[in-house]
Design a protein that fits this description.
This protein is α/β, with parallel strands linked by helices. Helices cover about 50% and strands about 15% of the residues. It is built from 19 helices and 15 strands. Helix 2 (about 55-60) packs across helix 3. The longest helix is centred in the last third of the chain and has 31 residues, at about 340-370. It starts with a strand and ends in a 22-residue tail after the last helix. The protein binds zinc ion. Zinc ion binds near residues 127, 129, 145, 147 and 148.
Length: about 500
């Protein structure tokens, strides 16, 4: 049996979830659901990064304890699972999950034993938003972080450093050879260029004072707390059992295909720091890192100050999780940012779901009721008119498989809409109503059977993308029930911007 472990990044909980988080969750969910449908054993992991310094600052600003603050924030992210039909198997919270700390300590000890952690006095410019140090050359002309638009603070202290520089050649070789696959190729080239420019060791701890006592203490050095990225990245192995459950870890990390889905802003941590830490600790690396772009909202980068960070749970409440998922999968580009507007979501849902797939399923069920009392005839149509439809049905499975192997979600969902297009054209060409009028019973049976089989195919192929809608289509077309169809009811509502 093939085992497949797929993860999202774990967001900081100091902000509210926005549509960018929904993109990552839905993309990862599609990969998980598709592999489950194929019969693989799947572990889909998400969670929250509770130990970041900005959570501490957020709690201070809100006047509550850090533990309460992160628990409340994490709930909003966990709630995206049911709201967006996202099928996590595991959701780890790094501050409270009993699996996390022992694994982080073990990881630290393994890197220390390799001689890759050392103490050094240091001063640098630290952006709390990014949780990283910046060189002056990496900042804007007026000395601000490009991601947050804020000026980093000068930090001077003695920290533990991780010997990243020792892994440059190995990392170049791994990425260049594709043994560590980074998708899309433009991101792989970006990582290679960064690696080849030379790697500096990074600070892997901070003083307890600067961390306000929050986070995992450095083993054997209680004055220091493990740097939040070292801690956060470890979630990928602590959740499957590193440091707590060796048998489970062996199954779901060592014995599984390992895929990380992340946003472009954190590629360096995942494609450089994380593999180096794993190499140092003698652990298996991820097989693939897929990097998605950003979603902007009404033309602007999503941010608290822009006031455009609408909770995707609210969007799903208003328009349905199917419509939101469909927009994320069918319109978000693999390169370059994509702008979200409610009007675009509504347009896409009406065009592809209500007018195309929904229309085909609905007219099929209606005709089976009108002409055959709801009972599906047996057989199918092997006349020439059905050729294009049969082709669309025949290639959909392999097209979806190939597209998802390339993380091309748009191409994958297009294979489903192509069936709808071909099906609706087929209805227009064969005109079942004329066959009924002309008393051509045999041909009408063949056409109706062909259309019902098409609807059932749509239900199967749609399932990884729109699980809730796929169930409605399956029910309407009598998939795995009987050959007597329920009364036709629209499977997709027509939406309006509200
Ligand atoms: Zn920043």
């Amino acid at each position: 049996m093939t085992r497949y472990t797929v993860t999202t990044a774990i967001p900081y909980v100091n902000g509210r979830p926005h549509v960018g988080h929904a993109l990552e969750l839905v993309q990862t969910d599609v990969l998980a659901r598709y592999r489950r449908q194929r019969g693989d054993a799947v572990r889909f992991q998400s969670g929250t990064d509770d130990n970041a310094l900005k959570n501490v600052q957020g709690a201070e600003a809100a006047g509550v304890s850090v533990a309460d603050y992160v628990a409340h924030g994490a709930e909003r992210f966990a709630a995206l699972g049911p709201a967006l039909d996202v099928s996590f198997d595991d959701f780890i919270r790094t501050s409270s999950d009993p699996r996390h700390r022992p694994g982080v300590e073990k990881l630290w000890a393994a890197c220390a034993a390799r001689g890759d952690l050392y103490r050094k006095a240091y001063s640098g410019l630290y952006c709390v938003g990014c949780e990283r140090f910046y060189d002056r050359t990496e900042l804007t002309a007026d000395g601000r972080c490009d991601e947050h638009g804020t000026a980093p603070e000068l930090v001077e202290e003695e920290n533990w450093f991780f010997r990243l520089s020792a892994y440059q050649d190995q990392l170049v070789d791994l990425v260049d050879s594709g043994r560590l696959r980074i998708e899309p190729a433009s991101r792989r080239r970006e990582v290679l260029a960064f690696l080849r420019a030379g790697l500096a060791d990074f600070s892997a701890s901070r003083s307890v004072a600067r961390a306000r006592g929050w986070g995992v203490p450095v083993p054997g050095d209680p004055g220091q707390v493990i740097y939040v990225w070292f801690d956060a990245l470890a979630n990928y192995i602590t959740a499957p059992g590193y440091g707590t459950d060796p048998a489970r870890f062996d199954q779901w990390w060592n014995g599984a295909e390992r895929v990380h889905v992340i946003g472009k802003g954190i590629i360096r941590f995942h494609a450089v720091y994380w593999p180096a830490i794993l190499l140092s600790a003698g652990l298996a690396l991820p097989d693939t890192i897929f990097v998605h772009e950003y979603v902007t909202v009404d033309g602007a980068k999503i941010s608290k100050s822009a006031g455009n960070a609408e909770d995707p749970a609210d969007i799903a409440q208003r328009y349905g999780s199917d419509a939101l998922r469909w927009w994320l999968l069918s319109e978000v580009a693999g390169s370059g940012d994509t702008d979200f507007t409610a009007a675009r979501l509504v347009h896409r849902a009406n065009e592809d779901l209500a007018n195309n797939l929904g229309n085909l399923v609905n007219r099929t069920a209606s005709m089976v009721h009108r002409y055959r009392g709801g009972v599906v005839p047996s057989g199918g149509d092997d006349n020439g008119e059905a050729r294009a439809l049969r082709h669309a049905r025949a290639v959909a499975g392999s097209t979806i498989g190939e597209a998802l192997a390339d993380f091309d979600f748009r191409r994958a969902v297009e294979a489903v809409t192509a069936i709808g297009d071909a099906g609706n054209r087929y209805v227009e060409v064969v005109k079942p109503w004329d066959l009924a009028k002309g008393g051509d019973t045999e041909r009408l049976d063949a056409v109706l059977a062909e259309l019902v089989a098409t609807g059932r195919d749509i239900a199967v192929h749609l399932a990884p993308f729109l699980p809730a809608a796929a169930e409605r289509v399956a029910l309407q077309c009598g998939l795995s029930t009987t050959d007597s169809l329920p009364q036709p009811r629209p499977v997709f509502p027509r939406l309006e911007v509200s």
